[in-house]
Amino acid sequence: MPSHAENIALLNKDADKRSVIDSIDRPIRPLVLELTRVGIKTCFSCCGFTYEGEEEPKSHHNTFTYVMFYGPDPQDPSDVSRFFEVVHEFRSNGWAIQLVQSSRSATEQEWHVGFIPPFPMWNPDGSGRSVHDYEGRIFAIQNMVNIFKRWPAALGPKEIVDGNIKRAEFTSEWRVKPRMPYRMVGFE
Question: Is 167 a member of any domain?
Answer without folding.
Answer: yes
